[in-house]
Amino acid sequence: MDVLSTINAVQFFDSLSDKQKDYLIDISSVRSFSKGTIVYFESDVDYSLQFLISGLVKIYKIDKFNNEIFLYHIYKGNMISELTSMDSESIYCFSNAAFVEDGTILSVDFKKFKSYFIDSGLLASEFITEILEKSRQLQCIINRELVFDSTAKVAHMLYHDLEMFNTLKKTQIAFMLHIQPETLSRVLKRFTRNMIIDVENKKYFIIDEEKLSSTFRGVGL
Questions:
Q1: For residue 97, how many C-alpha atoms fall within 13 Å in the half-sphere facing its CB?
Q2: What is the enclosing helix (H) or strand (E) of 45?
Q3: Any idea what the CATH number is for the domain that residue 103 is in?
Q4: What is the dihedral of CA 172, 134, 56, 43, to 10 degrees?
Q5: pLDDT score recorded for residue 221
Q6: Most buried residue among 56, 158, 170, 179 by CB atoms closer than 10 A?
Q7: Over the stretch 83-120, which tens digit does the pLDDT of each residue have?
């Protein structure tokens, strides 16, 4: 995929004119990554604004015992970079980012992008939307780790990320939600018994969205 096709695949850039896209092409590059490749490490300093074009990226941190703490996934079409300030011409990496499957990234020179597209107001609205989405993800992490019990954690993931839920092994899901695999199995059985969800060919589907969402709705939200 060439750079223009890559840019056109990202909704973030839809409002740009052909001339503006030509400039964006000049300051951008497309890179391919294999599964397991690290995009950046925590505390790295990056000079590129990065967008995920294909594949899946996980964002995580490492605790003092060298254990991985899962935070969230980034899906194609979304910005990977975590911005903590608009005053700097570099990007400080708050977490680690790694590919869960093969994928592609669009990298844009942040200094030139900021000067041409953000400071001028061309993509300011889109940029604010991306930052607000990062804030929403942080709120979800706070709820998951500090507010939700095991049942609410499972319900929240089923409701908001069913496709991902069905692609992962139960041990992986339990690890992501920071619960025991046995606890996950008990919650799923309870939801199935109460006719909130069902399973067919090892894939879960939602029967009663209202009951499922009521499990976590209003808790810390």
A1: 24
A2: strand 45-46
A3: 2.60.120.10
A4: -80
A5: 39
A6: 158
A7: 877 777 889 888 999 999 999 999 999 999 999 999 99
Is 198 found in the same domain as 154? yes
Q: Has residue 138 been placed in a domain?
A: no
The domain of 103 spans: 3-122
Of 212, 204, 27, 184, residue with least CA distance to 116: 27
State whether 15 and 117 are in the same domain. yes
Q: Which residues contact 218 (CB under 8 A, 6 or more apart)?
A: none
Q: Model pTM?
A: 0.82
Residue 101's nearest CA partner among 34, 192, 196, 156 is 34
Q: What is the mean pLDDT of residues 168-175?
A: 93
Domain check: are 111 and 156 in the same one?
no
Please enumerate in sequence order all residues whose Cβ is within 8 A of that of 47, keeping only pairs 6 or more positions apart, or say none: 89, 90, 91, 109, 110, 111
